[in-house]
UniProtKB/TrEMBL annotation:
The lineage of its organism: Eukaryota, Fungi, Dikarya, Ascomycota, Pezizomycotina. It comes from Chaetomium fimeti. Pfam families: Pyr_redox_2, Pyr_redox_dim. Residues 252-273 are annotated as: Disordered. Binds 1 FAD per subunit. Residues 357-464 form the Pyridine nucleotide-disulphide oxidoreductase dimerisation domain. This is Uncharacterized protein.
Length: 474
């Protein structure tokens, strides 16, 4: 049995909060820190999630624009346009490798240790890795999540479906990509691969994809994607699968929609590749969490945490997907700040309760959201004033030739605070921070109306949108 090595901070899993805490605690607080990571770089976001998918979507956007130029400007381009998937893959890899260099540099610069290997808890605050034992005053569990593959679907496991990890590594174009699950992962890959020239079918068990979003938003977005060739089969479940992803695969489908001509009856769908994007499972089993460390898990398999991300064991925190924080990198980033606040009082001590959860689906058009959705407000009986404007009212979109989509906001019925904001349009993710700031400070929407914003930028559309908030009913 090796002698335990004593650290101030050790993270099991190199997710977002893990590396930020290690870098910050070592360089600004003189702590001895280590991060244990069994993947290629520290964290999913730079390797197999946010950064490579956004790189892929950008390449797909270029392919789309090249095709548009060919179609609309005879003579501006010639020949049959085809995406070169080997080059698309190479560019994605270049970005991933660049992120690795950046992170390795930060570990070196901050003198925090990145331990490459699989870690497991062997005691409440002791981790075993590569034949070493590490103990620390503060331990962080930041192991992330993995794609959920529902093995109760007959034939799914044998079909060797792709997850986002494998799909990001194939260098040829699938002839027909079938996507199981119309959530964030499914929608972004659907548009990217359709734009590269693949036939794409999305199967979603709910009556609409992106089930949490308002139906007007989903209708507009799916109309755009359908026009680009993506086929959506909603209210549809898979009852059997034969064949193997990568060669030929046949799915037996059942449709439960009363409006569909195939309602109730089975149908089959044949494709070349199958992507599973049907939700995620936290990486919390087989690493000694409950057995060796006595850490409590929730019914969903996440590490149980309080509002300051403390687990049931004193001195052990959990952050990110594995702790049930909303599955976004920026929420992992905020988890880092919450834990840093507890450990050092800087920037200030606070919890996760009531924090904003902004999101952007990076399809083109982007779908940006923060706060309350209209459907949610109705369900909860929250009274609101609604303002909605087409993207064409954001004059910049006219110059871009991208006027589809709209923005809408919910404002208090009997007050002036903004309750929620949603936009579907080009680059609308960049509109969120200014709206977030007004919401966070509890300011009146009229503060936005009062701004002078550069013309013609997307942001100036916010002034017009909020100018049109209907008056309070007397
Ligand atoms: C395809 C895709 C695209 C996405 N795009 C976006 C986006 O654009 N924007 C956004 O905000 N979010 C996006 N997300 C979500 C985002 O990637 C996750 O919410 C985020 O990465 C979670 O961070 P985390 O800190 O919880 O852990 P992770 O980043 O998942 O890191 C956990 C790390 O722990 C390691 N690990 C696990 N177990 C062990 C062990 N026992 N020993 C050693 N190491 C271990 C893993 O290898 C991993 O590197 C995307 C997700 C996917 C799947
Ligand atoms: N741009 C971003 O920020 C971004 C991008 C990708 C992923 N993410 C994060 O990762 C999370 C996980 O993404 P995801 O798309 O895997 O999950 P998800 O939970 O967003 O969507 C999964 C979808 O699959 C459907 N589904 C599940 N089982 C099914 C079945 N058997 N048949 C048909 N449909 C089925 C669900 O109804 C749901 O619509 C997201 O919720 C998001 O938080 C963020």
């Amino acid at each position: 049995m090796p002698t335990p090595e004593q650290y101030d901070f050790v993270a099991l899993g190199g997710g977002e909060a893990a590396k930020l805490l290690a870098w910050d605690l070592s360089s600004n607080h003189g702590k001895k820190c280590a991060v244990i990571e069994h993947g290629p770089i520290s964290g999913a976001c730079p390797t197999v999630a946010c950064m490579p998918t956004k790189t892929l979507l950008h390449s797909a956007q270029l392919a789309h624009l090249a095709r548009q130029v060919q179609a609309s400007t005879p003579g501006a381009a010639s020949g049959d346009f085809k995406a070169d998937m080997a080059k698309v893959f190479a560019r994605k890899q270049e970005v991933v490798d660049g992120m690795a260099d950046l992170f390795l540099g930060l570990f070196a610069e901050t003198k925090s240790e990145l331990i490459r290997g699989h870690g497991e808890l062997v005691g409440p605050k002791t981790i075993s890795c590569n034949g070493r034992l590490l103990t620390a005053e503060t331990v962080l569990i930041n192991t992330g999540s993995k794609a959920f593959v529902d093995t109760s679907i007959p034939g799914l496991a044998d079909a060797k479906p792709l997850t986002h990890v494998e799909l990001l590594n194939i260098t040829t174009l699938p002839s027909h990509l079938i996507i199981l699950g119309g959530g964030y992962v499914g929608m972004e890959f659907a548009q990217a691969y359709a734009r590269f020239g693949a036939r794409v079918t999305v199967i979603e068990r709910n009556s609409q994809v992106l089930n949490k979003e308002d139906s007007d938003v989903v209708t507009e977005l799916t109309t755009i994607l359908t026009r680009e060739g993506v086929e959506f089969l909603t209210s549809t479940t898979v009852t059997n699968i034969t064949g193997t992803s990568g060669s030929e695969i046949t799915l037996t489908l059942s449709n439960s929609s009363s409006s569909s001509s195939s309602a109730g009856g089975p149908s089959t769908l044949r494709g070349s590749h199958l992507l599973v994007s049907a939700g995620r499972t936290p990486n919390t089993s087989g690493i000694g969490l409950t057995e060796a460390a006595g850490i409590t898990l929730t019914a969903t398999g996440h590490v149980a945490v309080d509002a300051q991300l403390r687990t049931s064991v004193p001195g052990v925190f959990a952050a990110g997907d594995c702790a049930g924080s909303p599955y976004f990198t920026h929420m992992g980033w905020d988890d880092y700040r919450v834990i840093l606040g507890v450990l050092t009082g800087a920037p200030r001590e606070r919890g996760t309760e009531g924090r904003q959860v902004p999101s952007v689906l990076f399809t083109s058009r982007e779908l940006a959201h923060v706060g309350l959705r209209e459907g949610e407000a109705r369900e909860k009986g929250v009274k609101y004033r609604l303002v909605k404007a087409p993207m064409g009212a954001f004059l910049r979109t006219r110059a871009l030739g991208e006027t589809e989509g709209f923005a809408k906001a919910l404002v208090e019925a009997e007050g002036e605070r903004i309750l929620g904001f949603t936009a579907l349009g080009p680059g609308v993710g960049e509109l969120l921070p200014v709206v977030q700031l007004v919401m966070k400070l509890g300011l009146s929407y009229k503060e936005l109306v009062d701004l002078t914003i550069v013309h013609p930028t997307m942001s100036e559309g916010l002034v017009d949108l909020f100018r049109s908030v209907p008056p309070m009913s007397k």
